[in-house]
Design brief:
388 residues, 2 domains, 11 strands, binds NADPH dihydro-nicotinamide-adenine-dinucleotide phosphate, binds magnesium ion, Rossmann fold, Rna Polymerase Sigma Factor, Chain: A
């Protein structure tokens, strides 16, 4: 029986993780649940999964949750604040940490879990893009196990060769090809892109996800962040990373080998599949996902991404050439832009403009430790804010 801590339990990845745990009650026990402020959702989850700890970042939410849970027979320790989030993420009883907080807010706890040498199942790509080399160095130094939940990276992990310890290697690999659905605006003209509304951008054709990643998918920034995620996770050079638009979202990514072979992972677009793979690794366990019927799908298509219509993806390719702090700049500018878009302060078309201006403003520099990283990140955020 493995004890699981779910950071971001009330979100979309949290729900899929709990669904896989529900299918495998003999394998996993929920140790702790973390969220920001969604009290009602947490209450529902807590009553079903009976964790030992519930932690909210927001202290008013923790107070309100304590009031609500006291009306039930359920006994649980309720805490608040990021120190306590780190405490459960590093708790000696925890075997697996699911890092599924959205955005840079998830960096501290994901890194704390890594430094406690936990098995970390990473959904929170922003933490890795922002932390980059510092994050991966911590994984190596503390001998943590980092398994990707992002469907593309999970697919790549499944298709890559492994060493004796079960880690992915790049032996014989010539390219990693990340697939992208193309989002809701795949067929839009450049002119139509100027008039896209927030509501349209929030409707993903294939995946049901949280608001931030859905908007990132509409601008293809999500694929840009994923390119950088793949670069760090698999230690892969920029010229060995490629993106192909695959609107059916059935092939979740491909590894191209030196002998001309391609290995791909296929499945329904359901996050329970990569989550079950990572939770059970190296064993296969039940995921609850529908089985793929290829004869019904019949056609799988692939096309080059349009970097003019989706400049955010072009910026990520540029950052891969520049390296260093450019990843932190890209991530921070995007987070501020997306927040402003959700708050209706800017339009969808303004997102790449803000990112471009921010990338131009900051030259790329070495960030030698977490304090330097956090300070630089704050500077970037303040600058992008000043443009809004
Ligand atoms: P959601 O918006 O659905 O959920 C976000 C979760 O993070 C919620 O539980 C939220 O709590 C919690 N949270 C937010 N801020 C804080 C904070 N300061 N402290 C503690 N918890 C916090 O996002 P998703 O589940 O869609 O995405 C999560 C991550 O996974 C993102 O990085 C995303 O890019 C990545 N990902 C998601 C995929 C998907 O299919 N959804 C696919 C691949 C990657 P509350 O509800 O209380 O606000
Ligand atoms: Mg993905």
């Amino acid at each position: 029986m493995k004890n699981i801590s779910i950071l971001g339990a009330t979100g979309s990845i949290g729900a899929s993780t709990l669904n896989v745990i529900r299918q495998n009650p003999d394998l996993f026990k929920v140790h702790s649940l973390v969220a920001n402020s969604n009290v009602l959702k947490m209450l529902e989850i807590c009553l079903e999964f009976k964790p030992e700890f519930v932690v909210f970042d927001n202290m008013f939410a923790a107070k309100s949750f304590t009031d609500e849970i006291s009306k039930t027979p359920q006994k649980v320790t309720v805490l608040s604040g990021y120190h306590h989030i780190n405490e459960v993420a590093t708790h000696p009883d925890v075997d697996i940490v699911v890092a599924a907080i959205v955005g840079s807010q998830g960096l501290h706890s994901a890194l704390a879990a890594v430094k406690a040498s936990k098995t970390v199942l990473l959904a929170n790509k922003e933490a890795l893009v922002m932390g980059g080399t510092l994050f991966m160095d911590a994984v190596k130094t503390h001998n943590a196990t980092l398994l990707p939940l992002d469907s593309e990276h999970n697919a790549l992990f499944q298709c890559l060769p492994k060493d004796a310890a079960g880690r992915a290697t790049s032996a014989g690999v010539s390219k990693l090809i990340l697939t992208a659905s193309g989002g809701p605006f795949r067929k839009h003209s450049l002119k139509q892109m100027q008039n896209v509304t927030l509501d349209e951008a929030l409707k993903h054709p294939n995946w049901a996800m949280g608001a931030k990643v859905t908007l990132d998918s509409a601008s293809l920034m999500n694929k840009g962040l994923e390119l950088i995620e793949a670069h760090f996770l698999f230690d892969m050079r920029a010229d060995k990373l490629e993106v192909l638009v695959h609107p059916q979202s059935i092939v979740h990514s491909l590894v191209q080998y030196e002998d001309g072979s391609f290995l791909a992972q296929l499945g329904e677009p359901d996050m329970c599949i990569p989550i079950a793979y990572a939770l059970g690794y190296p064993k296969r366990i039940a995921s609850s996902a529908k089985t793929l019927d290829l004869s019904k799908i019949a056609t799988l298509t692939f096309e080059e991404p349009d970097l003019v219509k989706f400049p955010c993806l072009a910026y990520a390719f540029e950052c891969l050439k520049v390296g260093k702090s450019s990843f932190t700049t890209l991530n921070a500018a995007n987070e501020i832009a997306v927040e402003a878009l959700l708050n209706k302060q800017i339009l969808f078309k303004d997102v790449p403009i803000l990112i471009d201006k921010t990338l131009t403003h900051f030259s790329s520099q070495d960030l030698n430790n977490i304090d330097e990283l956090l300070e630089f990140d704050q500077q970037v955020r303040a600058y992008t804010h000043s443009l809004i």
